[in-house]
Amino acid sequence: MKSSRIVLLAAAVVLSAPVIAFAQSKAPAKSPQVKRGEYLVNAVGCHDCHTPMKMGANGPEPDMTRMLSGHPQGMQVPPAPASSGPWVVHAAPLTAWSGPWGMSYSANLTPDPETGVLRDFTEQQFIQAIRTGKHQGQGRPILPPMPWPAFKNMTDGDLKAIFAYLRQIPPVKNKVPDPVMAAH
User: Fold this and answer.
1) Could you tell me the sign of the dihedral formed by the alpha carbons of 128, 107, 101, 54, in that order?
2) Which residue, 66, 82, 95, 112, could crosslink 71 as a Cys pair with Cβ 3.0–4.6 Å?
3) How do residues 112-129 score in pLDDT, each as one tens digit?
4) Is 47 part of a structural domain of the chain?
5) Of the candidates 183, 117, 91, 105, which has an alpha carbon nearest to the alpha carbon of residue 143?
6) Partners of 102 in the beta sheet?
7) What's the pTM value of the predicted model, to 2 decimals?
8) Is 165 in a helix, a strand, or coil?
């Protein structure tokens, strides 16, 4: 009886191997450029601001079910404090920021066709935005805390890799609020 169970188990494993191999071969292989982009996104800390946090066993941790989707839609934050004093992190998931400029929200970097900020960007516009600190390379300023002054020093190849990676991550529908500029 025991040996027949082992034979059946072995047969099930052998027979399912082609199915498992077929399923694995259907997953798209990441190009070297996309792998480089994934490495850079993780190395330079994009998740720190663009992935909402959740409370984990050891404290706040990125909520990877909402990877790079920006400030959570519908999450209300208190009004920005007066522009005197230090800049402050303004929301629990570390996706809303206030300071002398007003209130800024981390953008949805996923390729969602309705709510992803890069949906209308070309690769060249993405590079230009990082180089100039202007939305799509020519629009409104990219607001703090986005460290574009440091990121502008990346090579074109690095920025193209980041763009390629962001284009293929899972889309997350999440409409991030528009920034609120401070009255001066």
Assistant:
1) negative
2) 95
3) 999 999 988 999 999 999
4) yes
5) 105
6) 99, 181
7) 0.79
8) helix
